[in-house]
Structures are given as C-alpha cells and as structure tokens.
Design goal:
about 650 residues; alpha+beta; 7-stranded mixed beta sheet; 22 strands; elongated
Length: about 650
C-alpha cells in the first residue's frame, strides 16, 4: 500500500515533466504511420491516423491559442500554427492531394517537438532557480526545558529556542545563545569558505552547520528569514516581465494581426494580379503564416534573463527582476555609501600613543570611562583593553557630553576621555607634539580620543572604521569596466571621508550628507550620466537606493529597509561581486541583441525563400521552429560561468 501511494505522485510528476515530449513522440509515430498508409493506398486509414496526429500533437497549441483569443481578444503564434496546419489539410482534402495532410501534420509535429525542447530548456533554468527551495527545512528541534521536540517551522515563534546538530541545515534565522561551530553559507552568500559562528552571532536559514551543536534563539518570524525573502524575490523575478519583454509582447500582438491581414491578401490577390493557381497561392500563404510568426523573437529575451538571474543567484547576487539585470549592464556612474559599504562598519582601535613609559594606565582609564558609554567608539576602546587582558576599577559620577566625551571620578581623581575641547577643561598644558599627532591621524580619516587624569594627558587613542580589504580593488575594476564616475556619499565629516576616499580610489566625495542630500546627489548624477547605481546598506541609504536607476544593497550587513528597497542584493557583502553583476548584465545584453538579430534575420530569409517558390511547408516549419530553439538554447548560455 505504501509503495503504491508513493508511486502515484512520482508517476504524476514524471508525466507532468515529460507530457509535451510524450505527445510529440506519439505525434511522430502517427505521422509516420499515416504517411506509410498513403504510400500503400490506404486513404481512409491514413486520414484517421493523421487526424489523431493533428489532435495529439496540436491539442496544447490549439488550447493556448483559443484561450488567448477568447480571454484576451488577441491572436498569438500558437493559433497561427494551427490555422496553417488545418489550412494545409483543407487544401489537401479539397484538391484530393492527401500528402498535403502529411505536410500539415509535420508542421504540428515540428511545433510539438519545439515546444517540448523549449520546455526542457526552461525547466533547466527553473531547476537552477528553484534549487533554493531545497535549502529550507520543514521541521526544527524546539527546546522545551531539557526536552527536544520536532515541530514544523511554521509553528516557531519569536523567543523560541532551537537546537541545530552537527551536519544539519539551519531551519530558520536565529541568534546563537550557546555553542560555536563553522557554517557553510554558500547557499546564501555564494561563499564556499565556512564562517565561524559563536554566541551572539546571527545565523541564516539554509546554511549548513559544521561540527558543533548550536542553540539558537528565534528573533524574527520564520517566514521573514533571509532565505525565504530570497525565494520570494526570485519567484517574483520569474513572473515579472522586464520592459524589453513587455515591448516584444506588445509588438507580437500587433504583428500577429498584420500577419493575418497579409496572409488573407496573399491568399487572394496573386491569382487575380499575377496569374498564380489557387492551389499554389493558398500553399504559399500558409507557409507565410508559419515563417512570419515571431516565435524566435518572443524567445529572445526571457530565457536569457532568467538564466542570468539563476547564474547570479549561484554567485550570491540576487537580481529582483530581469529589468535590473538589463539595467546594471548599462551603468555609467556608481555611488557608494561609506559606512558598512566601502568600510566594514565596525570601529576598531588602529593607533595609540602614551605619554608614560607604561601604557597600561592609558588603557585602564580610557576603558573605565568608556565602559560606561554606549557609543561605538567606547565599545572599540573597551574591546582593545580586554584584548590586552587589562582590568580596571569602576568610575563614578560619570557625565557624558554629547559629541565631546565623558568625565568621571576614578580612584578619587577626575578623569576625562574625549575631544580636546572637553580635555582642556581639566588639563591646562597640552603638548604641541600631541596636537600635531592628533591632526595627522585625523587627516588619515581616524577619530582621535584624548585621555587624561588628574590634570595630565595620558595619551591618544585613534579609532577608525576599517576599509573593506577588497574595496580599492573593486573600485579599480569598475573603472576598468568603463564606469565613468565612482563617487562616495557619507554623513561623516569631510576629513574622515577624504581619508577613506584616498585609500579606496573614488573620483569624488560628498560628505556631511543627510538622506535627502544623498537623493539629490543621485539626481544630479542621473542628469549627467543617465544610468546610475547606488550601493548602500543602511536605513538612511534607502531613499537613494530607490532613486538610483539600480539600487544595490549589501545583503548580510544591510538593514531590512535597504534590502526591500534595493533592486539587487549582494548576499556575501563582497564588493567584487558588483563587478561580476555588471559583467553578467552586459553579457545578457549581448546575448539578447544577438538573439533578436538572429531571429529577425531568419524570418527575412524564410520569407524570401517562400516567395521565390523554393520552400515546402515542412521546411518552413523546420526553419521557423529551429530558429526558436536556437535562440532559447542561446539564452541558456548565461547559466554557465
């Protein structure tokens, strides 16, 4: 009983995957038998067999064509093929030249074979895209006290704790609360190198756990996990037609009407004006209906763009729709946010100088005061002190002054950490050497923190947002690709901004910008360069991402707002993927153009051969459908590389 229950869905799936091919094979057998019956003089049997071939091979096309005609009041290529085949059959019966029925049957056969091949080609793209679906688990090990319970993912709630054992897929996004392990995040970011995860780190659904067991806390609904959003966006990309495809579809509707009108004229005027026989005229008109149909033109765009989307997804580049794959290949200028995009977004201590031979006092005073602050600069200093295994006493009477620093009492003496303006309230004499050192660090884009206690400066600590290792190389590669202008947008001060810009190699810097100021800069770039990309990760980047021709978000570090607003997401937070995205977009453009030129050229060649009187109906169908299969397979080239 169990085997039968399992076999039924399997058989249904196999039939669904191969139905078109099965119909085409059955049609081919029937056409051959009908042709042989005619050769043997069995006209009645031949008519019966060929009728079956027409029905089996042409059912899908007739259904689709009539559905479009009734529901959308439009003519499409499927209906034209059926009309041409039935016209050939009618002409054969009228003239009692029954081999014309074979021509019509061959037309339907080739059309059925073409449909099956196109179906298999598109299934390959679908499998590449839908491979994401297999990365999601259906159940999770929810922890209830000391007990484990397997529950559906959909039943998990915020605050639940789950266990992920070694070698298992992470079932949903969560935060590590116990344990450590290495996770393979290739499914999300395209990176094959495992990433270390420990307490406090976020992990993503669909990633593969390594050797350690992890206990996670669910901090967002499972349906909001990163992998689920990726799947939703890819599905959306499959259903949304880009502008070029929409134009082709509008063109096809008008073009089909022109073909029908031209076909009527060609089937009536030549006998009156050129002295053609009615048989020859109708036959040529039927061939015209076949070869002039824009099947190949219709297949020139979407297979290519869907293949490009699938290729990008494998590399950790998520295109939300085909239009953005087209647009990114046309980019002439790119604007980068600074913090979290060109830089890591994590402040670190990069330099320090102490006025005393023993630098421990500098770090202990700085850490004692900064441990009372929630500012990222304070966190960086405290972390650096801990890495030196230092301990410090707790400060009292702490008072923070926004934008300046913090004062407190430490071991019965006043202490201060911050900018010179607040340090000068406790220190009368500040060394000129320290002032020069501070100015030099600031010119390099570093934030300088002064530390003093008991009226004496203990030293300086320089903190900086570290430039991403690949940022300079990524910018250089963009310029090599021909991107005319690379700019940096930041809300930071000009001195820090220019320090980062020198390290990265951008052409122009816009500093001290509010979110609306970034939008205005993007508008100015669009006036000059038309197609402009914006790369960002934060909430304050969302308006500029929306304004840009192509908005590109940093996936792992990006805010939810930035991810939703952007058109393209770099899942690995690796800027070098931007170059790959542009190359993929340009490659897609080239393939689409090649396909369009090839398809139109083939139509012209077939029309010339038809009116020269050197073409049979099966040859016309073979040429027409062959060109359609060719452009479809050409589009699938983007799955490689």
């Amino acid at each position: 009983m169990v085997s039968k229950a399992l076999a039924a869905p399997l058989d249904l799936r196999v039939w669904k995957d191969h139905r078109e091919a099965t119909a085409a094979i059955a049609c081919a057998v029937l056409v051959f038998l009908g042709w042989q019956a005619l050769n043997l003089g069995w006209v009645g049997g031949a008519l019966f067999i060929l009728t079956a071939a027409y029905i089996i091979g042409g059912f899908d096309s007739a259904r689709d064509g009539l559905s479009t005609l009734v529901q959308d009041k439009e003519l499409d290529v499927d209906l034209l093929m059926i009309v041409a085949a039935l016209g050939a059959a009618g002409l054969g019966l009228w003239q009692q030249e029954y081999y014309l029925l074979v021509d019509g049957a061959v037309l339907i056969l080739i059309f059925a074979i073409s449909g099956a091949l196109e179906g298999y080609a598109m299934q390959r793209t679908e499998r590449s895209i839908q491979g994401l679906m297999g990365l999601t688990a259906d159940t999770a090990r929810r922890l209830e006290g000391d007990r484990e319970q397997m529950v559906p993912i959909t039943s998990l709630q915020i605050g639940d704790r789950i266990l992920v054992k070694p070698g298992e897929l992470v079932p949903t996004d969560g935060q590590v609360v116990e344990g450590s392990s290495t996770l393979n995040q290739a499914s999300i970011t395209g990176e094959s190198v495992p990433v270390e995860k420990t307490v406090g780190d976020d992990v993503f659904a669909g990633t593969l756990n390594g050797q350690g067991a992890l206990r996670l806390r669910i901090h967002q609904p499972p349906e909001s996990s990163l992998i689920q959003r990726v799947i939703q966006l890819v599905q959306q990309a499959q259903t949304e037609a880009p502008p070029s495809q929409q134009f082709i579809e509008r063109f096809e509707r008008g073009y089909a009407k022109v073909i029908v009108i031209a076909g009527i004229l060609l089937s009536t005027l030549p006998p009156l004006l050129l002295g053609w026989s009615w048989e020859e005229t109708i036959y040529r008109a039927l061939i015209f209906l076949v070869v002039a149909s824009p099947c190949a033109l219709m297949a020139s765009i979407m297979p290519t763009l869907l293949s490009g989307i699938a290729n990008g997804a494998r590399r950790g580049i998520l295109f939300k729709n085909g239009a953005q794959l087209e647009q990114i290949g046309r980019i002439r200028a790119i604007a980068f946010d600074k913090t979290g995009t060109l830089t890591t977004g994590n402040l670190q201590v990069v330099d320090a100088i102490a006025t005393q031979p023993d630098s421990d006092q500098l770090w202990q005073v700085a850490a004692a005061l900064e441990s009372l602050s929630e500012h990222p600069i304070g966190d960086a200093i405290v972390q650096a002190a801990r890495q030196q295994n230092l301990t410090w006493t707790t400060a009292s009477n702490a008072q923070a002054q926004a934008g300046l620093g913090i004062t407190a009492d430490l071991e019965g003496q006043p202490a201060v950490v911050g900018k010179p303006a607040i340090v000068e309230t406790q220190v009368k004499d500040i060394s000129e050497d320290l002032i020069r050192q501070s100015q030099q660090w600031e010119s390099e884009g570093k934030t300088v923190v002064w530390v003093a206690q008991a009226g004496e400066v203990l030293g300086l600590i320089a903190v900086a947002d570290i430039v991403r290792p690949a940022a300079a190389q990524a910018v250089a590669h963009l310029k090599q690709l021909g991107v005319e202008q690379v700019v940096m947008l930041t809300g930071d001060n000009p001195r820090t901004a220019h320090g980062i810009a020198q390290q990265v190699g951008v052409d122009q810097v816009y500093a001290e910008l509010l979110p609306e100021d970034k939008v205005e800069v993007i508008r100015q770039l669009q006036q000059q360069y038309q197609t402009v990309g914006m790369v960002g990760d934060g909430i304050n980047d969302a308006p500029a991402l929306a304004q840009a021709t192509v908005g590109i978000a940093m996936g792992a570090a990006g805010s939810d707002v930035a991810l939703e607003t952007a058109d393209i997401v770099l899942m690995a937070d690796r800027l070098e993927r931007l170059e790959q995205a542009i190359r993929l977009g340009r490659r897609a453009q080239r393939v689409v153009k090649q396909n369009i030129v090839f398809s139109l050229s083939f139509v012209v060649i077939l029309l010339v051969l038809n009116f020269a009187g050197n073409m049979t109906l099966p040859f016309g169908v073979l040429g027409h459908e062959g060109s359609t299969v060719m452009v479809t397979l050409s589009g699938l080239r983007l799955l490689r590389g």
